[in-house]
Every structure is written in structure tokens, then in C-alpha cells.
Specification:
The complex is a heterodimer. By secondary structure, chain A is mainly alpha-helical. Chain A has helices spanning about 1-25, 30-50, 50-80, 85-110, 135-155, 160-170, 170-175, 180-200, 210-225, 230-250, 270-280, 310-330, 335-355, 370-385, 390-410, 415-435, 440, 460-480, 485-495, 495-500, 505-530, 540-555, 560-580, 585-600, 600-615; strands at about 125, 130-135, 255, 260-265, 445-450, 535. In chain A, helix 13 runs parallel beside helix 18 (about 460-480), helix 13 (about 335-355) crosses helix 22 and helix 23 runs antiparallel to helix 24 (about 585-600). Classes of the chains: A mainly alpha, B alpha/beta.
Chain lengths: ~625, ~260
Amino acid sequence: MNGLANASSLFFLSAGLSLIFGVTRIVNMAHGSLYMLGAYIAYTCATSLGGVLGFWGGVLATAAALALLGALIEIALLRRIYHAAELFQLLATFALVLLLSDVVAALWGVEDLLGPRAPGLRGSVEILGRQFPEYDLFLLVVGPVVLVGLHLLLTRTRWGTLVRAATQDRDMVAALGVDQAKLFTAVFALGAALAGLGGALETPRQPANLGMDLSALGDAFVVVVVGGMGSIPGAYVAALLIAEIKAICIGLGTQTIAGIPFNFSKLTLVAEFIVMAVVLIARPYGLLGRAQGMPRHAAAIQDPIEPAGRRARLLALAVLAALLCVPLLAKASPYTLVLGIDVLIAVLFAASLHFIAGPGGMHSFGHAAYFGLGCYGAGLLLKLAGFPMAGAIAAAPLVAALGAAIFGWFAVRLSGVYLAMLTLAFAQIVWAIVFQWEALTGGSNGVLGIWPTAPFNSAWVYYLLVLALTLAGVLAMRRILFSPFGYAMRAGRDSPLRAEATGIAVLKVHWIAFIIAGTVCGLAGALFAFAKGGISPETIHVSRSIDGLVMVLLGGMHELAGPLVGAPVFTLLQDSVMRQTPYWRGVLGVVILALVLVFPMGIAGTIAGWAKRVAR
Amino acid sequence: MKPLLEVRGLQKSFGGVRAVDRVSFALGEGEFLALIGPNGAGKSTCFNMVNGQLGADAGEVLLGGEAILGLAPRQIWRKGVGRTFQVAAIWGSLTVRENVQLALLSHAGEVFRFWRPAAERHRERALELLADVGMQAQAARPARELAYGDVKRVELAVALANEPRLLLMDEPTAGMAPRERNEIISLTKRLVRERGISVLFTEHSMDVVFAHADRIIVLARGQLIAEGDARAIQDDARVQEVYFGTGRSFRRPSA
């Protein structure tokens, strides 16, 4: 029963996301943030006005406010990026997540805020011998009511027909003289209003807090992917399924299976992502989803990669020489070395992501998983298995490689948004296991005391080790890209059909590429563990995956040098902004937005573009 | 003539529609065989089953006496079957030469090599193949910049890289101007004759079919309705019926 009540607000949230995706083909990462904003606005209405008007009026006002905000976002931002690459759209909306998160923190503070109970529905009724809150009953009913309302809106009205037509083929709808811009704005506003409604109705049950944007987003992704992108009934079915599974996990509590006590309530996070992974593998388009018509403009195909010229080699040597000199500066400011190590690890991490996302064409949204496996692999091998430092650093990438081999085997079978979702789900599974398996990983406390042994215990020696390994990793991946295998990787991305018809086993090629990237990423994770002296679940949070993508895009997805430029710029920027203001997330969000709108080719891409123009 | 490719009782339904209904034909060594039929006749379905992209409900496909039905496209390619697509497919982010080099690397079983740079491997052979299709001058260009007619030529070079016994061409002249059409088909015919390659192709352009095909098979509503040389097909009453209804003549002006 509890699950059924939870399902309603989950459904509002997911229906909005699904609707927006169906029509605009944009996965709105900021959807959870709109949900969070809805909860906060409703809280303010309910507490400041009070009474029936404050609560129920507040709920409606919240939906209206969110619709307005949604329309504004669509007009100001999304309209400019409909024709950009998918990854850019995801990033632009993720920038909104960062921005809105700090806006909420600035306006409402960081305390959890629990709203008053709904006027008129404060009591509870007895069902089957159990007390059940009236408000939950109301939620249980309102979900199907909205479902039917949405269904009628989409099937019985002219506007609904246009929306459904646009979901199937938006180019054709535009060609028939429908004003796409207005349609998209309206859909986005409706989706935002639904998210706000979901958030507003949850305030009496759960406190509004700053973490709810990403957790709601995670839940909504799972629901939408399980139900089928763009399918409203699918979203309802999936919301029910997920909410019930969670409720059952909590309800079971600790059970004893085969003599071993097993706490099911800790499985909630893992359970939903496992459901999603299973559904994606069995039915790649979701329970009630259909294959989507692809937008007609395919992402721009990249230029052939060329070996570095004389000038580029000289530049690379100069940079290397400068990096070798960094320890000399460390006498004056020891922090330089710490930052230098951070930058190098970020470069290795971003380069490994670029390896599969650029030439491999697989946009992973869960690269943090392999970083985390490397991190925890090194930490646990050192602490629990008694490995020496060198052994831990050597073995940790193999742990990550194993993870990449398992996850990659599934991931290479999907593409586009579905691939992004599945990689994200895998990363969340790793995160959830780390977070909830306290006996092994220390849970939220993490693993402490991972320090390098002599001679690496002095910072400059460790810096040089990181420099050497980063250099080795980056050069090895670069070399692979120029090998026959590298050609096959790019061929598999450009035209899998042609590659298969030319005797190339595309899935195998991409699977191996995935494992290579995971291995290198694991090395970055291991180096990180020893650099920080300890690790926590924070290390593998979804934000690390996103940071990686920002680094790659900042440098330029289409340039081999992209991650080498993007990672340092991002790390230095984050470091300097973080020390200046508590609202660094917001600032970062603005930077990403500017990047997406002004430099869609990234820094290295833009410079390469200038260089070409000058050369002509 | 000894048959190189034998198709026996091939069958495929989509939902309740029999797209391909017990089709049987054979292709001799060195033959240039056209598969024609109106839209929806089952040509592409037939074609995709022969090259492994689509599974069949029933039937047999034999290549040189060996059953190939149910093999993946890349396995069929390894048995010496090249193919070109209706919408020509090459790898846009590789250069023209790298496109052909990769096909040669694949043929030599060298795809899973990770260390030695590929740029010098099979370079000369790739340039020879490009010279054969008249694309040597553009070898260093990114493939995505090419005009469509040139893409078709590069695709042909890629398809010839594994020295196939059989070449499957799905509408080799689709989307091309009449003059280009004749050029590409004459070029193809010259190259396959030199190498002794057999060709099975589908085609909508009747000038191309009647001028170049050694033999023609006609599909309509999933069934094979006629088989023979250009003259026999033009005179066939059932072929005339499926293409034109009844009444109008189906002869070339020169015939």
C-alpha cells in the first residue's frame, strides 16, 4: 500500500520526463531539480500562508510556477541546442542541475524542511487491520486520475495529436506547418509542471532537502527507462513496479537466508538499478516502449585523426618539461604538488573516458564506476589483502577491467540515450554496493589510511610517479587509436553496418575498447586513492562521471588532445572557484552553459579550427 | 555453368505478410544476375537473407555447395562474399585510403592488433584498389567530404578488398544521375569480369538491367514469377502485368 502511494509522485515526475524526451528527444537532467524546486515552493506556500489555501492553493501555484520556469528554460536554453549532439544536450541540462541546486541552497538554506500535513486529510483510516494515512489514500487515487487525464489530453485533443505526431516524427510535423517551437515550449512547460506537482505533493510525507534533485532524477530515469521512453502508461506501470519493489525490500527487513542474516532494506538502491539493467537487456526499449524514430540529423562525423606534426610534438615536449619542473616550485607552495597530482589524475581519467566516448562513440555516463573500482580495489587490496603499494596499484586496474568487462558486455549492445542510462545505472549499482556494504567498504566512512610507502611518501616523488603513469596511459591509448584496432573502433562508430559487412566484429571491438578504457580509468582511481590517503563513496558519485564528461567536452570531443586540455582547465577552474565561493556548483553550471552555447567544439576543437583557418 | 550460389525455397513472413515465398534460383560462376521487381516485391528481404542480415523462416542458401543461411554477415563475408548497400556506407571519419586499408586489414585477420600503427599496412594494395575505381587522387581526403558518386566508388573498392567470389549489390545506381549510373555499372562490370567475380544485384533502373544483366529474375509479391534474359523478361506477360497492369507496352524504344 505504501508503495502504491509512493508510486504516484514518482509517476508525476517520470511522466514529465518521458513526455519531454518523447517530443524533444532531450533527456532533461534537470528534471529532478524541478521536482526539488516544486517541493520547496510548496513548502513556502504551505507554511507562510497556512491553512487550506496555503496547502492546496500552494500545490496548484507550484505547478503553475514550474510551468512558467519550464517555458523559460525551453525558450532561453533548449531551443539553441536541439540540433547539437546528444551529449551536449545532456550536459546543458546538467548545468541547470548545478545552478538550481545552488539557487535553492541560497534561497532556502541547507536544512531539511518538512511541510505541514494536508488540511482535510490529516487522519488515517483502518484497512485490513492497519492504520493507513488518508493523505496516502489520496495520493493513491490521484496518480491514476492524472494518468487518465494525460491520456485523454494526448489522445482526444488536437494538441495531443500533434504531440503524439511529433513524438513519432518531428521533422514531418514541422514540414506540415506546425510551429515546432511553440509545441516544444508547451510540452516542456507541462513536463516541468508535472515534476513540480510531484515535488509539491511529497512535502507532507518527506522533508524537502538539497539531495533530492539527484535522487529523484535517478528514480525518474529508472522509471522512464523501465517503462519505455515517451510512454505515459509505461511510466505508470514502471513507477508502480519500482515503488513496490522498494516497499517490499523495506518491508522484508532483515531475513535469514541459508543461515546468513540478510538485510533487504539495504538493497533498495541496488534493487531498482538491477531492475532497470534487467529490463534494458531483455527489452531495450522498455516495457511499453517502442523503438524511437531517430532524429534525421546524425551527429557530425569527425575528421580523420592525424599523427602529431613537428610543432605539436615540440609543444608536447615543452609541456612535459614544464610538468617535470613543477616539483621545483613545490618548495615555495606545497599545494602546487597536490594540485598537480589532481590535474594529472584528472587527465588520465578524462583521457580514458574520451577513448570510448570519442573514437568509440559510446557516451558513458557512468565512468565513475571504473574509477571507483580502481580506487576501492587499491584500497581494499592494501588494507584487507595486505598487498604492498606497488601490487595494489598494479592490481587495481585489473579489478576495474573486470568490472568494465561485465558491464561493457551489456553496454556495447545499446546506443545513444539508452547506453547513457545503462552506464549510469551500472555506476549507481557500484555506488550503492559501496555505500551499503558497510562490512567490506566501510559504508559512508570509506577506507582510511591508504598512504604511499617510501620513497613515494614524499609528495614530489609521488607526483613524478603519477606523471610517469599518466603519460604512459595517455600515450598507450593514443597509440592504440592509430593501430588497426583503433581504425576498427572508429569504423564501428561511423557505420556498424559496413563494419560488420567487412568482417569486423563490431561488438567485440567496442567491448575490448570499453575494457581498455576501464583499465586505464582504474589506474587513475588507484593513483587517486594513494594521493588522498583515503576513499569514500563520494569518490564514485555520479558527479564524477559528469565531471569527466565536462572535461572531455571542455577540451573538445573531436580532438585527441581534448581531454589533455579539458581536464587541467576544469580541475584548475573548480579548484579556484571552490575556494572563492560556497556557490561553486552554480558557477560551474554557468561555465558549462557558456561552454555549450559559445564553444560547442571545446577548447582544443576551437583552437584547431582557428589553426586550420589560418593555415588556409 | 556450375552454380556458385544456390537459393532453395527461401521463405520469410513479417506478421501475416509473406514477404518472400518459396523463392529458388541459382547464380552461375561469373554471372551478372539482376533481381528485379516492383516496390514491396521482396527483393531487399531476399537480399538481406542471402547476406546474413536477416534470418529466414525456411529454405537454404548454398555458396559453392556450403550452407550459409544463419551465418552472421561478417562470417559470410569471410567466405568470400562482398557487398554494397543501397545507401552507400563507408566510414566517414577515416580517409579514403584508410577505408580500403581497414578492409584489407580485416581480410588479413589483422584487426585485433593494438600496437603497430596501421598507416603503412597494405598501403600499396589500397592505392591499387583505389586506382581501379578511379579514386587514387582523392586517397588522402576524409571520406565524409566525398560526393555521393565517389562514395559509391570507394564502397566498391572496400567491397573488392577481400577478393570476393560473389558480390552482392543492393541498387548500385540508386540516387545517381543517368550518366553516373552507366559509368559506375560499366566500371563494376569491367572490374568483376577481370577478377572472375559473380554478381547478384537488385535494381530499379530498367536501362541498367536490360543493358548489363546476363540474366534477370523477377519477384512480385514475394514470389519468383519469371527468369530469363532481357528479351524473355520484356516479353513475359506476367512481368508486364505486375509492372504496368495490363495493356501498355513494355519494350525499349530500340527493341
